[in-house]
Amino acid sequence: MTAGLPITQTIRRAGDWQGAPDRCVLTFEERFLRRKVLQTETGKQFLVDLAHTESLNHGDAFELGSSGLIEVVAAEEPLLEVTGPDLVRLAWHIGNRHCPCQIAPERLLIQHDHVIRDMLAQLGARVREVNEPFTPEGGAYGHGRTHSHAH
Known about the structure:
This protein is mostly beta strands. It folds into 2 domains: 7-74, HSP40/DNAj peptide-binding domain (Sandwich), CATH 2.60.260.20; 77-133, Alpha-Beta Plaits (2-Layer Sandwich). The chain is built from 2 helices and 11 strands; from the N terminus they run ββββββββαββαβ. It has a 4-stranded mixed β-sheet, with no helix packed on it. It has a 4-stranded antiparallel β-sheet with strand order 9-10-8-11. A 3-stranded mixed β-sheet has the order 1-5-4, with no helix packed on it. The radius of gyration is 17 Å and the shape is elongated. The chain starts with 6 loop residues before the first strand and ends in an 18-residue tail after the last strand.
C-alpha cells in the first residue's frame, strides 16, 4: 500500500518556509501523527514517517525532498464556542478537565462534548455550535500536545 509513495520524515514549522505548491487539510486529531498515508487537496498521496509522534499546527509543512513542500491547513470541524462574563473562570474549568482549548480575548473554542457543554452552561456560559478550524493552545512543556505531566 505504501510502496512507491513519496515519503517525508521532515516537518518545517510555520514561519520557517514559504511557497508550498500543495496543501493537506487535517483536523486537530489528524494533525497528531507519526506514521500515516495522507492525501493533498490535489489528490497526491504521500507517507509521513516521523521518528516520533508530532503535533502539527496550521501553517506547518511537510518536506518531500525534491518534490517540495506540502502545507498543513487546519480543517473546519464541529466545535463549541464558549462566551460569558468570566472567560478566565470558564477556561480554568475547561483546563481542569484537560480539554484542548483555543483561547481568544472574547471567546473560547473547544471540541464538541455534551458533558462539558452542560457543565459550562451550569457555570453561566453561553455555548453555541460552530464549524471552524481548531488550533488550541499547545502543551506547557513541549511543542504542541504533550503526553504526560512528567518534568
